Amino acid sequence: MAESLGARLGALPFEIRQYLLITGNYWAFTLTDGALRMLVVLHFHQLGYTPLEVALLFLFYEAFGVVTNLVGGWLGARLGLNRTMNLGLGLQIVALTMLMVPSAALTVPWVMAAQALSGIAKDLNKMSAKSAVKVLVPRDSAGAGSALYRWVAILTGSKNALKGVGFFLGGALLTWLGFRGAIIAMAVMLVAVLGLSLVRLTADLGRGRRKPKFTEVFSKSRAINVLSAARFCLFAARDVWFVVALPVFLYDQHGWSHWTVGGLLAIWVIGYGGVQTQAPRLTGLVKGGPRTVTVFWASMLAGLPALLALLPLSEVGWLVAGLLAFGVLFAINSSWHSYLIVHFARADGVSMDVGFYYMANAMGRLVGTMLSGWLYQVHGLSACLWVSAALVAASALMALALPGRQQAT
């Protein structure tokens, strides 16, 4: 059976084989990334850290992601996406190794340093995977635009579904193996994945025909700049209540266990990823160009956090239902954005445009994460939800400056 599977895979076109390898690489990394985030939130909150202190543990994770997307996009264009993807895997292994020290050595600066490496690793891996899709989709095929959207949607949706599995895995491993045992198990898995990637992933994938200057990472495209600003607000709107405030609220105010909190967030992200894979069908229900579709779906999302803030949060059923609805609409927005950036990016040096865009994405996560800890500690979950609604509304307003017609730069 193994030989038969190998033969079938070998018969696939080169682009499909590379796409499957990149997706598998991305999947494995995402599992550890989601699990590590949940491990850190629950473990350190259990140790007595305040919500703001827990948020600060992710400060370098998000901050270094901002820099990494800029530098990583430039490196990808110069060195090849295979090298930046493998570098991301290697750095994640180093970050996990740093967290294997005894509990007494897990000081805030040490954990922040490990999270900084993890943030660099994650954004190198993501930028490489998203950029590689643009390179692998045949440009002269009929319906290449819709094919690109489908490939991006599958990659993004499956990644987020597995990130949800990672949330659940983090809560489960913390219960079964403890913090250190969970870290060791994830590091062993990534070592095996890195070995396969080093052998099988094609050299110089996505490497530019010329050596771009570093100043070229700052996009001169109006569409990419507008889309990046809208993405910043969109992801800040999610993380301002989802990253720290929600899990701590459920744990403290409703007495949920690690298993239950991790399970809910896992279901949310798995469902979110599943919706993303269907986004091409859902966004197709709205006729129009990038501006019309983007503004419509952002406007649909903006009212949900405000509605949740008006409802009694003591009734956890309302909160869970609202969270699930937010996930559906956010998934559509996110997948559509992910397609547009790859669509608008330059064919030669795609990683620089994608890197610039995900720099804005990382900045949004950074701001959202910090606000999540501070707002929840000072004003509670309702304040986080009101800020989320305002940020989504800002994203919709920015999208009004996108091109009216769907044409690539």
3D architecture notes:
This protein has one domain: MFS general substrate transporter like domains (Growth Hormone, Chain: A). The protein contains 16 helices and no strands. Helices cover 80% and strands 0% of the residues.
Radius of gyration, in angstroms, nearest whole number: 20 Å
State the total count of DSSP E strands: 0
Name the poorly predicted regions.
Answer: 140-144
Strand content: under 5%
Q: Structural class of the secondary elements?
A: mainly alpha
| Count of folded domains | 1
Helix content: over 70%
Report, as a whole number of angstroms, the end-to-end distance: 46 Å
Question: Averaging pLDDT over every residue, what do you get?
Answer: 80
Main sheet summary: none
Shape, per Cα inertia axes: globular
What's the CATH topology name? Growth Hormone, Chain: A
At the first level of CATH, the class is Mainly Alpha
CATH superfamily: MFS general substrate transporter like domains
Named CATH architecture: Up-down Bundle
The number of helical elements comes to 16
The SSE order reads: HHHHHHHHHHHHHHHH
Q: Descriptors for this entry?
A:
single chain, 409 residues, mainly alpha, Growth Hormone, Chain: A, 80% helix, globular
Short précis:
80% of the residues lie in helices and 0% in strands. The chain contains 16 helices and no strands.
Lay out the secondary structure.
Elements: H1 2-11, H2 14-46, H3 51-57, H4 59-79, H5 81-98, H6 108-136, H7 144-176, H8 178-200, H9 222-242, H10 245-253, H11 258-277, H12 279-283, H13 290-310, H14 316-344, H15 350-379, H16 381-399
Helix pairs in contact: 2-3, 2-6, 2-7, 2-8, 3-15, 4-5, 4-6, 4-15, 5-6, 5-8, 6-7, 6-15, 7-8, 7-11, 7-14, 9-14, 9-15, 9-16, 11-14, 13-14, 13-16, 15-16
